[in-house]
């Protein structure tokens, strides 16, 4: 699959296991534990172009093939509950509706950047659902799970992972949540 990425644009994807140095440490450990890591590729990028719009414009990768991972914090009675939410880059996560209800929280919001970075051991702008803390739910919009090819973060700003959506749907803690994105 690595040789047939139609969404790569000018990226030069290589098998992910051949360049674990392009992944954050927890992402590399999780990739090695996947049942089918050969279905993933990684490509080095300019870290100043990691943000989705700039990345897509510069590398010619379609915006509708990019998925973003955001860390959401839900609060109820002083207890914080975290989740990773994956939505297509062309959509917005329904944090205060569907996601808040799934977390059984009175209040939900994007986790502060410092919290997201320290809890995931990943760089802001590169957070990915692969290699998140054990026990975190990974909430996927159906569009992400069904995508044949996606570009997602790698845990660092200097690379991107290319992955089929069904691989993300099989991650520990992954759930497909209807109407999570609009």
From TrEMBL:
Name of the protein this chain belongs to: Prolyl-tRNA editing enzyme YbaK/EbsC (Cys-tRNA(Pro) deacylase)
GO MF terms, alphabetically ordered: aminoacyl-tRNA deacylase activity
Signal sequence range: none
Domain YbaK/aminoacyl-tRNA synthetase-associated: 47-170
Family matches, as CDD domains: PA2301
Organism: Lentzea atacamensis
InterPro entries: YbaK/aa-tRNA-synt-asso_dom_sf, YbaK/aa-tRNA-synth-assoc-dom
């Amino acid at each position: 699959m690595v040789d047939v990425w139609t969404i790569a644009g000018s990226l030069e994807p290589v098998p992910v296991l051949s360049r674990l140095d392009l992944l954050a440490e927890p992402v590399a450990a999780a990739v090695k534990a996947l049942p089918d890591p050969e279905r993933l590729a990684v490509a080095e990028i300019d870290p100043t172009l990691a943000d989705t719009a700039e990345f897509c414009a510069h590398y010619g990768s379609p915006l509708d093939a990019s998925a973003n991972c955001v860390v959401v914090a839900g609060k109820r009675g002083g207890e914080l509950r975290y989740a990773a939410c994956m939505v297509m880059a062309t959509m917005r996560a329904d944090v205060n509706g569907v996601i808040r209800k799934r977390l059984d929280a009175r209040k939900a919001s994007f986790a502060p950047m410092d919290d997201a970075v320290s809890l995931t051991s990943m760089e802001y702008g590169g957070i990915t659902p692969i290699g998140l803390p054990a026990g975190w739910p990974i909430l996927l919009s159906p569009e992400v799970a069904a995508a044949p090819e996606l570009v997602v973060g790698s845990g660092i700003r200097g690379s991107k992972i290319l992955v089929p959506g069904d691989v993300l749907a099989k991650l520990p803690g992954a759930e497909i949540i209807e109407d999570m994105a609009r």
